[in-house]
Amino acid sequence: MTVEVAWKALAISESEVSLHKVLRCGQTFRWKNINNVWSFATSDRIILLKQDPSNIYYSHIMQKGKSGKEKETLEFINDYFALSIKLESLYTHWKIQHADYQSKKNQQKSPFDLFTGIRILRQDPWECLISFICSSNNNVKRISKMCENLCIHFGEYINDFENHEYFSFPTPQALSGPDVETKLRELGFGYRAKYIHQTALKFTDDVNHPDITISNLMGMREAKYAKAHEFLLQLTGVGPKVADCICLMSLDKHDVVPIDTHVYQIAIRDYKFKGNKSMKTLNKETYSAIRTYFKGIFGEYAGWAQSVLFAADLSDLNNGTNIETTSIKIEKVK
Fold first, then answer.
1. Does residue 158 contact residue 46 with C-beta atoms inside 8 Å?
2. Rounded distance, CA 52 to CA 146, Å?
3. Model pLDDT for residues 132-155, shown as the tens digit of each residue
4. For position 317, which CATH number holds?
5. Which of 24, 39, 231, 329 sits 20 to 30 Å CA-CA off 320?
6. What domain range includes position 41?
7. Mainly resides where (predicted)?
8. Catalytic residue among 66, 104, 241, 295
9. 8-63 pLDDT tens trace
């Protein structure tokens, strides 16, 4: 059965936000693309988005038995995509900085010319935390499958859209049950099953971990980077890079650059960072030095700039996770 969807237009250019790039560059793992309609389940609705060069069109399908307003969906979009931050002016600055590190013989188009419209999302911190615990030694396709299984088996059913069931992201309470680790291992989570379960337990243990709460996690948006980073390192399965991903992608720490050996190679290859190309692992001093180096080049939104560089080095932004169903038909209702 075709769902009748009433679309509203939000005037915004693809250079400010490109849905295809932003939702496929390794930040978020639960968006589906079904015949160019993006869909994502929140706690009470399915968010629907599509785009042309001048507009994002949005709609929603509420959880069965609940009602909601279009205004709430728009508020979600503005917050989730951090639309108060103007991207084009940042890109202009990054292009100038990038050019300073290129030789006259290498005046090709920069990643900031080729990969426009990539911005850092402002995700729910709890979902971002668990998603990036799943990301350890993993690829985007598998992480996406893990996040989907978390929702199917431990989330709350929201509704159907075009023959797909949608579920909310599970709460700490839902992931702290006695059988959760065993179930996750059966679902192929491996060692990450223990990390997810133990982290959920910390968020639900008022006696032994009274300071580890969802409220305090949300409060890290207002805290300094060092405090937020330290808070996250208490959690099972969270190391320095995962903590930095969470800080950047959900806790408003825009200058934080998550570093791995891939980013390290970009720093050496493209930005004249003095390092050892053959280094397999990064020590604490090198990790910190690269972060500081990128911030010196790109400024207070260095983490945003790094996400563009990372996307430019990906071989496939689709990551094998798009869904195409030719029978789908969505009609615009005036």
1. yes
2. 31
3. 999 988 899 999 999 999 999 999
4. 1.10.1670.10
5. 329
6. 8-85
7. nucleus
8. 241
9. 999 999 999 999 999 998 999 999 999 899 999 999 999 999 999 999 999 999 99
